[in-house]
């Protein structure tokens, strides 16, 4: 029984060790760097309106964002304010976070802009079509609809098609 | 946003189903120089007809949207900037920071709260009143600055209206000249026409920055420009002009005493300014409220600020300072010491060595026992003997000596302990009744006023009951002392701030300040801790209310500005670009953008959380 306990405790220690290793500064920075790269590529794609390519980046991004979301406490606690090296690391980490915040903020605004424009264009299209349909439903003075026979001068038929 | 996208996308899909096809090739859409209301359809043997392009209608739609966004953006931008100014330069009412209301209140109530622990500390109370005085002075100055800022808006409005009229005249002239400039269809012959049209749209764009507009061409192809509420600005050759009735009578306008148009559209050729010949944009109407028909543009922001936001804030400040003074007075009334005898503590009989706590002064009035009228001195005024208790009295013997050694010049009273241990006073060498009166009591010219109190020729100043003692705080066991307390309590003046008259905006708080100055010089002994606690809560909630309102308004405007800016830029870019619009592509984009937005937002939020924590801990 005692041996089992010792074994279990050893395993726990091992886990903690792994956990600590996992939250090593280098690894965190690497992950943050990867996320930065993705967000920057996303920025380029949005700029060029290559949304399909930007969408392809989403799975990778979800993975990293979820990692940073779930481990926020552990990551932030991994910096010890008493150690000089940790303070420097924290400063670097802070800069990376700020940069990520800036770029993703910009991307968000650009996406909002594109979304708004898309919705507006669709709205205008819809209105135009409605307007056009209404014009074709005019009634002749006898009260009979001549809409089918009448060719609206506002509608130009492309005979080539 | 995503919901709007879905709705729009689905609406479009339905339309596409209706016309039988959803095909690509909506191309070459955006030439802002050319406007026609046409939808180009392509006949398709299989499905009937399909959209080839709606380029020209699209341009017009985008232009309209540009004017609309222009108005909204400029309105929110100007509002935000002005509110920023109110917050930073005038108000200093931020939640944090040196001059914030919260800090000011902490300064004041921090002092008062200490009094709960150390009663009878008049210095601390005076400190508190002094802080309060300073604070009310600040609020008063802020109120005045706000009033000034409000008046300045009139100058800005005046200038903006002049600018607006200039653009209206230019746009009207350009619109009238357009048919004359139209070329004969030969390539290049429309240069002048297109130039003029460009200028016309630029003018409308400028107008839309100042006021909300709706622009369209009527059935004769003539330009119509009107506000969103349908008030015309350009229509045919009618010379419309926006008229701003200047600040004369502005106060009356705000008091809503009479119908007073502040901004109207009039026909320059009609001199009559009767209501039927003008279209009011801003007015105080019969409903007794200021009515704004402005829906965007700089003018809306300035009128909102002048007529709604600033008066509302000034009102809040007025109510706030008013309540501040009232509550302070209530605290003061509780805290004001009962002048005269405060406590004499003794068991059984009083002895001359009993300790006594006294302060202030009390007076003894003398009057004739036969007719009840006051005895007059040589000057013909009611005779009183004033006993000053402010120094040198710590025992009952000291008090007796003080009373016995004080005279009015002609008369005196004698004090002493009688055989039963009661402290009594009797008139000295005169047949007179007398009464203990408070310091502030006034005699009538004939001394009538004194009779409403009480008169004896052998007055027991303090009595006792076995095993009990006199304590002025409970006024137990002394009828006379109780009456003194009541009289003094009644004569304590309770200061109240002047109540703001309805419709009176920007009350000068100096009156309230003067009242507070009166309080400052009084002495205090504090008992009203409940009252302080209540006041602290009341003030804090008032102050927080004002600060919250401002901050929420500002935050809301900031978000609105960002949103409007993004949308305006989107429209501007689309108008400037020559790229086409493809419905299928747009629909695909909508879905892609929706997904992207979701995850960019998530990234932003997570990084924001990290950033906030890092800022807080590093």
Could you describe the 3D structure shown?
The complex is a heterodimer of chains A (about 160) and B (about 625). Chain A contains six helices and no strands. Chain A has about 160 residues and is mostly helical. Chain A has one domain. The termini of chain A are far apart. The relative contact order of chain A is 0.08. Helices cover about 50% and strands about 15% of the residues of chain B. In chain B, the strands form six sheets. Chain B has a four-stranded antiparallel sheet with strand order 6-7-8-9. In chain B, a hairpin with a 5-residue loop joins strand 14 (about 410-415) and strand 15 (about 425-430). The radius of gyration of chain B is 40 Å and the shape is elongated. Residues about 1-55, about 115-120, about 335-345 and about 440-530 of chain B have low confidence and may be disordered. Chains A and B meet through helix 2, helix 3, helix 4 and helix 6 of A and helix 1, strand 1, helix 2, helix 11 and helix 12 of B.
């Amino acid at each position: 029984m005692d041996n089992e306990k010792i074994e279990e405790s050893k395993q726990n220690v091992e886990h903690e060790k792994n956990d600590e290793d996992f939250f090593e500064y280098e690894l965190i920075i690497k992950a943050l760097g990867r996320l930065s790269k993705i967000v920057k590529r996303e920025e380029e794609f949005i700029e060029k309106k290559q949304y399909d390519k930007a969408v392809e980046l989403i799975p990778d991004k979800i993975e990293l964002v979820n990692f940073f979301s779930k481990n926020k406490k552990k990551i932030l606690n991994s910096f010890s304010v008493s150690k000089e090296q940790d303070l420097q690391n924290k400063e670097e980490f802070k800069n990376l976070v700020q940069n990520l915040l800036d770029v993703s903020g910009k991307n968000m605004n650009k996406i909002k802009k594109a979304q708004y424009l898309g919705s507006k264009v669709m709205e205008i299209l819809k209105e135009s079509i409605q307007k056009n349909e209404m014009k074709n439903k005019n009634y002749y003075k006898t009260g009979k609809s001549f809409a089918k026979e009448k060719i609206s001068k506002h509608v130009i038929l492309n005979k080539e098609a | 946003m995503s919901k709007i996208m879905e709705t729009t996308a689905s609406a479009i899909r339905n339309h596409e189903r209706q016309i039988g096809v959803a095909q690509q090739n909506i191309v070459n859409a955006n030439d802002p120089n050319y406007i026609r209301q046409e939808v180009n359809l392509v006949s398709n043997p299989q499905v009937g007809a399909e959209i080839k392009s709606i380029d020209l209608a699209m341009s017009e739609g985008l232009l309209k949207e540009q004017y609309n966004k222009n108005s909204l953006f400029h309105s929110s931008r100007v509002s935000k900037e002005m509110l920023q100014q109110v917050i930073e330069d005038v108000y200093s009412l931020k939640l944090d920071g040196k001059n914030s209301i919260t800090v000011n209140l902490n300064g004041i109530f921090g002092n008062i709260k200490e009094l709960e622990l150390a009663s009878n500390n008049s210095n601390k109370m005076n400190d508190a009143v002094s802080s309060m005085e300073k604070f009310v002075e600040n609020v008063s100055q802020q109120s005045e600055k706000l009033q000034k800022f409000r008046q300045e808006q009139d100058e800005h409005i005046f200038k903006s209206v002049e600018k607006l009229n200039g653009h209206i005249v230019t746009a009207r002239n350009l619109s009238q000249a357009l048919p004359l400039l139209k070329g004969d269809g030969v390539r290049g012959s429309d240069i002048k026409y297109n130039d003029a049209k460009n200028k016309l749209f630029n003018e409308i764009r400028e107008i839309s920055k100042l006021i909300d507009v709706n622009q369209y061409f009527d059935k004769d192809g003539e330009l119509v420009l009107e506000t969103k509420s349908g008030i015309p600005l350009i229509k045919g050759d009618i010379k419309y002009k926006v008229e701003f009735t200047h600040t004369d009578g502005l106060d009356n306008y705000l008091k809503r005493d009479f119908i007073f148009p502040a901004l109207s559209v009039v026909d320059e050729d009609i001199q009559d300014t009767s209501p039927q010949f003008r279209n009011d944009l801003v007015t105080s109407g019969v409903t007794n409220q200021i009515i704004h028909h402005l829906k965007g543009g700089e003018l809306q922001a300035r009128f909102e600020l002048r007529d709604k936001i600033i008066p509302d804030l000034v009102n809040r400040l007025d109510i706030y300072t008013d309540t501040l003074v009232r509550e302070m007075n209530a605290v003061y009334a509780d805290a004001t010491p009962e002048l005269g005898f405060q406590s004499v503590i003794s068991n059984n009989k009083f002895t001359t060595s009993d300790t006594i706590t006294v302060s202030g002064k009390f007076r003894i009035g003398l009057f004739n026992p036969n007719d009840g009228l006051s005895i007059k001195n040589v000057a013909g005024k009611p005779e009183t003997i004033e006993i000053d208790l402010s120094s040198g009295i710590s025992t009952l013997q000291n008090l007796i000596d003080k009373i016995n050694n004080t005279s009015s010049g002609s008369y005196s009273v004698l004090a002493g302990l009688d055989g039963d241990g009661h402290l009594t006073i009797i008139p000295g060498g005169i047949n007179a009744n007398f009464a203990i009166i408070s310091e502030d009591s006034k005699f009538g010219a004939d001394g009538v006023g004194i009779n409403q109190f009480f008169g004896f020729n052998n007055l027991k100043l303090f009595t006792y009951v076995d095993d009990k003692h006199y304590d002025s705080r409970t006024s137990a066991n002394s009828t006379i002392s109780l009456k003194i307390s009541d009289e003094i309590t009644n004569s304590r003046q309770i200061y109240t701030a002047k109540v703001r008259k309805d419709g009176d905006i920007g009350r000068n708080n100096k009156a309230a300040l003067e009242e507070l100055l009166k309080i400052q010089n009084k002495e205090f002994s504090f008992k009203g801790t409940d009252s302080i606690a209540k006041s602290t809560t009341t003030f804090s909630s008032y102050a927080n209310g004002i600060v919250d309102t401002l901050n929420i308004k500002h935050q809301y405007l900031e978000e609105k500005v960002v949103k409007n800016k993004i949308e305006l830029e989107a429209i501007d870019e689309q108008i400037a670009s020559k790229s086409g619009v493809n419905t299928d592509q747009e629909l695909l984009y909508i879905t892609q953008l929706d997904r992207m937005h979701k995850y960019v937002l998530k990234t932003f939020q997570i990084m924001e959380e990290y950033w906030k924590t890092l800022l807080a801990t590093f």
